[in-house]
Amino acid sequence: MYEEPYRWIEAIGNRRQYLDDQFRQGSPVIGIACDAGILLMTMSKGTPKLYEIYDRLALGGMGHPADLEKLRFNLLEMAHVEGFNRSPADVTGTRMVKYGIAPVIKQAFEEVFKAPFIVKILLAELGQKAGRDRFLTINFDGTFEEKSQCAVLASSAAIEQEMTAYLRQQPVVSLEQAVTAAVYSWAVGDRAQRQVLEESRNQSEGQNAAVRLASDPDLLHEHVRQCMNGLTIECALLDRHMPGASKYRTLEPDELERSLPNVLGRPTT
Amino acid sequence: MGMQGDFYQLLKKQGYVLGVSGEAGAHQQLTTATTILAFKYLDGVLVSGDRRATAGNLVMYDRTDKVLEIDRHSVMAIAGVPATAYEMARILEHSFKYYRRTQLQELSFEGKLRALSKLLKENVPAALAGTGAVAPIFAGYDPEHDAAKIYFYDILGAEFEGVEYAVSGSGSPTIRGILHYVNTWGEQPLSEMPEEQATVQALRLLTSAAEFDSATGGVNRDANLYPVVKFITAAGVRTMPDPQLRSLFEMNVSRGL
Q1: Torsion angle, CA of A66/A72/A74/A77, rounded to 10 degrees?
Q2: Within a 10 A sphere around the Cβ of B178, how many other Cβ atoms?
Q3: Which CATH number fits the domain that encloses residue B70?
Q4: Arithmetic mean of pLDDT over chain B
Q5: Is B31 assigned a catalytic role?
């Protein structure tokens, strides 16, 4: 029945709506550049969502863990074979996305008889020179965008815009400032997602939720504090000053505790 | 599990073949090398190698790096045909990274040793044909046993632990005896020497090897050319910078030359 064009368009529309629904309770992901390198941050329930891909590439993801794992392996295979056959300098985020996983995700999204990838991906690339840091975000339909300074993943484009707007207002130079900005930006996104979810349950409009919530720092504090009871703050750094080729490292619990705002600082895992 | 995390299998799946098994022509002189050594000192393991690559009686290059950092905690020192040895080092480097990134944990030290052994076994046809023989030393920090360790290999892939030291390359017979002597009857065993004293020993050993083996390059102060000296400790791999080597050489080695 999908041979008829309008049926196919309808099926794709349904699929888009289905996928939008899948991300409503996902944990936002934040990537932000600072003096120390590129910080990736999210909060998770134990299953990691931040990964090392190559010497200067790291990945953050939202969505189904099995789909994320499959695409992560695709990226890892591609990056390592390319780095071995050519050079590590030729393994760039743009090439990995444009010629690697974006077409795979798009194809899966448009093949209506097959399951789509339930994922959104943020790929961060630490530049060889200052000011060359890059972020690439890929949506579940394979569309991708390139950004500098910062990038986020959240359940909807509107919430992502609010999180980005919040991030851009924060002074981010040091790692500590980056961690603080990322954690509160995560709270902006997570609160907005919960608000949208709640409002959709009540059959009302939730588009302005993020705008209202982002302006109240006390609420953000409280929200993060509550979430820390059930979730773990996950932070990874593409460390500009790390010796050797591989620049990826996770922030150790004591380093993370030192970097968090005092009101939140406490042992994490 | 299958081949999860195995980079070499991934390469092979794509048609990659390590080494060439054709016979070396009678008149062809392949580039070879070397004197390499590793011994345990007070803080860990010292690995060092000369810088010369030769083809027959020709000196091909005098700035070869034969002590290769494979990852943050392991080093491979190469003796034999550099083309094959460098290729093996590149495969190992990518294999360890690939394993860590796919499996989200470091490959065990034993796993690293086996990876090199497997590559050498794959390379046996080329080694026996005379086009790709490699006899490396692999040293690294084993977090399971909280100790830096030394292993050496023959060209067929057999692996042996160098409990106190290991040597390889054309100049190695000269220094093997010296190492035994110094370690057994010297003022203190190698394993009790602090870093600078261990470095002086390494410089003296390589200078001795160069004296008796034309395929081993010595120190060339005019060209600011010194052996490569690396240390493996719990903190990782570190290279001694040339100015420090120069100073140690001038104070402790050059007086006899």
Answers
A1: -130
A2: 17
A3: 3.60.20.10
A4: 91
A5: no
Spatial separation of the C-alpha atoms in residues B125 and B21, rounded to whole Å: 5
Q: Alpha carbon A45 to chain centroid distance?
A: 16
- Which residue ranges of chain A lie beneath pLDDT 50? 206, 209, 211, 267-269
| Domain residue ranges in chain A | 5-258
Q: Does B128 touch chain A (CB under 8 A)?
A: no
B1 interfacial to chain A (CB closer than 8 Å): no
User: Whole-angstrom Cα distance, residue B32 to residue B85?
Assistant: 10
**A84, B101: Cβ pair inside 8 Å?**
no
Out of A48, A73, A84, name the one closest to residue B94 (CB): A84
pTM assigned to the model: 0.90
ipTM: 0.88
Top residue of B90, B97, B238 to mutate, by most chain A CBs within 10 Å, is B97
pLDDT digits 0-9 by tens, B91-111: 999 999 999 999 999 999 999
Identify the band that residue B28 occupies on the pLDDT scale cut at 50, 70 and 90: low
CA-based nearest residue in chain B for residue A52: B101
Tokens of B5: 């995390």
Q: B183 pLDDT exceeds 80?
A: yes
Chain A contact for B13 (CB, 8 A cutoff): no
**B2 domain residue, yes or no:** no
Which are the contacts of B105, defined by CB distance < 8 A and separation ≥ 6? none
Q: What is the pLDDT of residues A246-265, one digit of tens each?
A: 999 999 888 998 888 776 75
R_g over Cα of chain A: 19
Is A48–B98 a contact, with Cβ atoms under 8 angstroms apart?
A: no
Confirm whether B233 is domain-assigned.
yes
Q: What is the extent of the structural domain holding B39?
A: 31-256
pLDDT digits (tens, 9 = 90+) for B48-92: 999 998 888 888 898 999 999 999 999 999 999 999 999 999 999
Residue in chain A nearest B16 by alpha carbon: A85
Beta-carbon separation of A244 and B104 below 8 A: no
Question: Is residue B162 assigned to a domain?
Answer: yes
Whether B63 is in a domain gets the answer yes
Q: How many domains does chain B have?
A: 1
Say whether A80 and B98 touch across the interface (CB within 8 A): yes
Rounded CA gap, B219 and A259, in Å? 48
* CATH of segment(s) A5-258: 3.60.20.10
